[in-house]
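Q: Hi! First time doing this. I have a protein sequence and I read that you can turn it into a structure. Is that right? Here it is:
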Amino acid sequence: MQIFVLEDDSAIALGLSYALEGEGYAVTVCSTVKDALETVEKRDFALYILDLTLPDGSGYDVCRAIKQKGDFPVLFLTAFDDEVNVVMGLELGADDYISKPFRVKELQARIKSVLRRYKTETPDGTVLLRNLEIRTGEAKVYKNGEEIILTAMEYRLLLILLNNRGRVLSRTALLENIWDVDGDFVNDNTLTVYIKRLRDKIEDEPDSPSIIKTVRGMGYVIADD
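A: Yes, that's right. Below is the predicted 3D structure, encoded as structure tokens:
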């Protein structure tokens, strides 16, 4: 399986290539937006991992070019983990963010989750989950055919759980990957509030959730069924 990596830090690029090739992926690396645009125009990849800030531009530009060709999965690598960048990336059709520094095993798990999810998506990039439609290309969620309005944080939380569908995520793992509107990490009590608000919007019976399930002593999971 072919994976494309856009990263200008040679040490990170080398580490990524080594780790992904060890998992059996074939990796193509570019270090500039110019080279990346030329490469993605000529070839298709199973998944694209894009750094956000490059010497000659932004990973957003490459993401736009990729999405113009088709609905291919995209993950962003970024040190800029503020809400504005998250929302912009999602609006462009990105599937997830992972902030530097990151754990390679976590990235590998997210790659597998995104690829698995793409196998169950409709051709237009909509993820079907019981009575929900998550339109990743539009960053919109519909319940029984009607749009439900999620905040950027709620959508981010849903996307993280969805991208790890079938895998129990601890509260610590969730806290490491979400932040508030000011770019500050969310504390444990606030996470509880966000989980409750998200359940209130997407669950038929929030007090007895069937989508976001609690695994006692471990965390939360969206079942892979």
